[in-house]
Structure formats: structure tokens, C-alpha cells
Design brief:
By secondary structure, this protein is an alpha/beta fold. 28% of the residues lie in helices and 22% in strands. The longest helix has 18 residues, at 214-231.
Length: 447
């Protein structure tokens, strides 16, 4: 099967140019700058005039809720949502039910995804205080990394013993991805608010950012960075949310970094000023921060401090988002809107459009060592997305695909719209339709 995408504005490897891409079966065969040889014959010809062609987005941070919480999301529904947003590969987190803290439970997730995932997939292994021996036996070509919850966790996934943390950092054969919030500081803040509110068990959501505050994030992030420096561990800090934390990272080429940073769409799109309109819909952990923090995070997209942009896609039912700073569940479904949100920021002058593939495709592929993905290159898998820069469409029910049935982006108007997504050379999404029967592949990591 031979396909050509003609007349696209290709955005790839720091450049933007008019050209065509030839796909044969699963792979990119040729990238042609300018006009192509129209004497060649193809099984499928796609005229992409007026559209932008990006490498498929690789989201390094999602929660698809399967197993155990499939009433609100599952691998089938959320990978479908990913395809609609131009996301062609994802790496999913271990805090499901049961939590992914044994090799058997990890393998079960891969089996589910092989049957049901519309796009390419992989799964993090979850660290606990007691499973360091299992971490040492992980398959480095199959598992992207180990998720370490250094605070703000449930069940047995809070790694809060110093000796356990140090052992994990010293012995893990693969990257450690850390959720950094200091539990003691958070608990102290909750006690202070309960005293202030005379024993109330909940408070208005606007106080969430003062309970899970910058101090809690910085204390935990700085500990993780120090452990990585002491042990030589490869550390990736998830969802950096504050300007103060950015001071922990260095501006140098990705390949020279031992410690890297991820930002997520929620902290780039929202600030505490948005609580009045959106309330608990934008409650997440770590909390959204001030407009100044948001602006500094946006600056870090181009100054080398932020290496990757993910989503922390975390669906809950709307009734689970009721309550306040303590009782409403934290997390929001964002994967369908990550690429168009970044393109909107480009239109606002936050970053050049050529930088977006670095943060969302190239760098995730390089950072995790993903085999032949993340670039528009001959010999790479044809994971691609076409985007219309002049769609001017409004988000509304029926135009988003997450199983939980809502998004904080509802009623927002976007100029850009994903029109077609290719996974391994196959069209998995086209003009509002997710194609049935297409399945992604397990990601392979070259380390």
C-alpha cells in the first residue's frame, strides 16, 4: 500500500516547508521538499494544500484508568480521544486499580492495549517502598520508565522512606519519572485551613493552590534533583508547575542532561485567575499556579528549561469533580486538545510553530529512546497528523471523545483543528470520525 500526502506545510526538525510525504505500508518512504514527481502511481493520494503536517504527538504522561476505573475511562476510549487530537503514541501511568507495581500487572496492561488501543502505547512501572528488586528486572526495551510518587499519592504508591527512595534512585536501570509534592507540607497547610475555617472538612477550590503550594512542589522537586545528582540516576520531573522549580534545571542540549523537565497543558493554559469561571474543572495535582508562574512556564518552552510537553490526561466523571479544594477529584481530560492548545500559544507569540514538534514529538522520542518515531523521516513509522490552521471551530459536546463526557475546554474556540491522524501509515482519525479496527503498536525503546 503506497500513499502520498501532497502539498502540505511540513513542520519538522526546526523547519517549516512545503512538500510531500510518501508512505509505504507502515513506514515513511520519502520526504519531498517542493513539488513531487506526479508521474509516480500511488494507491492513495491525499491533497493537503492549506494544511500543516506534523509528526504525531508522543504524550509521555496519561492516565487511561484501566484496569479498575473503566466506568470513567478506558484504553479504548482514551486512545480514541488521543487519535482525535493528533496523538499517535502515549505512555500511561501506574496508578490504576490494582496499581501497576508487579511484572504480572504490567504485562496485563500491555495485553489490554494490544486488543484495544487505537494508537501506539507503553506503560510505566510504579515504584513503592518495597519493590526495588522488581525495578531492577524491568525490560529496558519495553518499559519507558519508573513512576515515583514522592508525595500526593494513594494506596501504597507513596514512596516516603528515605532509604527506599535512595535505593530506587541508585539501582533503577531506566529513567525515573517523579511526581513531586511534599506530603508533610500539604498536610500542614490542610490543618491550617481547617483551623481557619473552624473545623470545616472542605474549602472553596480557589484555596487548592495555597494548600498544594509552590513550597510543597519545590521541596519535593529539589529533593529529587539532589538524589539524582548524588546517585547518577536519570530523572524526569513530571508536570513542573511553578517558576521557582524551573531554577532546578539547566539550559543545555537534551543529550547532555541527566535531569529533565515536563510541563503539561493545564499549567500552560490555566492559572488561579481561571478558578472563578471553571472552578473544580481545573483542579489538578500539582495545582495550577499564579499567572506569573504560568507566564514563566511558557517562557521555558523556548529557553531550554522545559524539555517535553505532555497532558497528564486524567478523566473523572463530572459528579466526581463536585466539591471543593479537598473533596473534588483532581485531574482533567486534555489529550484531545494538547496540540491545538500549543498551536494557539504559537499564534499568541509564546513559541514559534517550529518548536512544537521538538517539545511534543522529537524530544519525547529522544528522551525515552523510542525506536523510529517522533520525526518525519524516511525509514520511520508513519505517525503523522494533518492540521487545518483556519478551521475556527468551537469545542462542544459531540466534538470531544473522552468517555467521561466533559472537558474544561468546552465552548472554547480554536483556530487550529486536527483533520487527520495516521498511526503506522493507517488513517485512524479523519474529519471527526475515528476509524474502527485500527490498532497501535507497542513502543520499543532503544537504550
Amino acid at each position: 500500500m503506497k500513499t502520498i500526502i501532497r502539498n502540505a506545510t511540513i513542520v519538522n526538525e526546526g523547519r517549516k516547508f512545503l512538500g510531500s510525504v510518501v508512505i509505504e505500508d507502515e513506514m515513511i518512504q520519502q520526504v519531498i521538499e517542493g513539488g513531487d514527481d506526479d508521474s509516480q502511481s500511488y494507491d492513495t493520494v491525499i491533497d493537503a494544500e492549506g494544511l500543516y503536517l506534523f509528526p504525531g504527538v508522543i504524550d509521555d504522561h496519561v492516565h487511561f484508568r484501566e484496569p479498575g476505573m473503566t466506568y470513567k475511562a478506558d484504553i479504548a476510549s482514551e486512545s480514541r480521544t488521543a487519535a482525535a487530537g493528533g496523538v499517535t503514541s502515549y505512555m500511561e501511568m501506574p496508578n490504576t486499580k490494582p496499581q501497576t507495581t508487579t511484572l504480572e500487572l504490567l504485562d496485563e496492561k500491555y495485553q489490554i492495549a494490544a486488543k484495544h488501543s487505537r494508537v501506539n502505547y507503553s506503560f510505566f512501572f510504579g515504584a513503592t517502598n518495597d519493590n526495588a528488586d522488581l525495578i531492577q528486572s524491568l525490560d529496558k526495551q519495553r518499559v519507558p520508565g519508573v513512576k515515583v510518587f514522592m508525595g500526593s499519592s494513594t494506596g501504597n504508591m507513596l514512596v516516603d522512606r528515605e532509604e527506599s527512595l535512595r535505593r530506587i534512585f541508585m539501582t533503577s536501570p531506566i529513567l525515573l519519572m517523579a511526581h513531586c509534592e511534599d506530603t508533610n507540607i500539604i498536610e500542614q497547610n490542610i490543618r491550617a485551613f481547617k483551623k481557619r475555617f473552624k473545623g470545616q472538612n472542605d474549602f472553596p477550590v480557589r484555596y487548592h493552590s495555597r494548600i498544594r503550594n509552590v513550597e510543597a512542589c519545590y521541596a519535593s522537586s529539589s529533593l529529587a534533583v539532589q538524589l539524582a545528582k548524588d546517585t547518577g540516576a536519570r530523572l524526569h520531573i513530571a508536570h513542573v508547575s511553578s517558576a521557582r522549580e524551573l531554577g532546578l534545571f539547566e539550559k543545555k542540549p537534551l543529550e547532555e542532561k541527566q535531569i529533565t523537565a515536563e510541563a503539561v497543558i493545564a499549567h500552560l493554559m490555566f492559572s488561579t485567575e481561571d478558578y472563578d469561571k471553571l472552578g473544580t474543572l481545573i483542579k489538578c495535582n500539582p495545582s495550577i499556579k499564579t499567572p506569573e508562574d504560568k507566564a514563566t512556564l511558557r517562557d521555558a518552552l523556548t529557553n531550554g528549561l522545559i524539555d517535553v510537553v505532555g497532558t497528564d490526561h486524567a478523566p473523572h466523571l463530572l459528579n466526581e469533580k463536585q466539591g471543593g479544594a479537598l473533596t473534588a477529584m483532581s485531574g482533567m481530560p486534555m489529550i484531545q486538545f494538547s496540540l491545538v492548545s500549543m498551536l494557539e500559544m504559537s499564534d499568541e507569540g509564546v513559541l514559534p510553530v517550529e518548536r512544537i514538534p521538538d517539545l511534543m514529538s522529537h524530544n519525547p522520542a529522544r528522551l525515552f529512546g523510542i525506536d523510529r518515531r517522533g520525526y518525519i523521516r524516511p525509514g520511520y513509522y508513519a505517525d503523522l497528523t494533518l492540521v487545518d490552521p483556519n478551521a475556527n471551530w468551537q469545542v462542544m459536546k459531540g466534538r470531544y471523545y473522552t468517555k467521561c463526557g466533559w472537558t474544561p475546554m468546552d465552548e472554547r474556540t480554536f483556530k487550529w483543528r486536527v483533520t487527520r491522524t495516521f498511526v503506522n501509515g493507517m488513517t485512524v482519525y479523519s474529519d471527526g470520525i475515528v476509524v474502527d479496527g485500527i490498532r497501535g503498536k507497542e513502543l520499543v525503546f532503544n537504550r
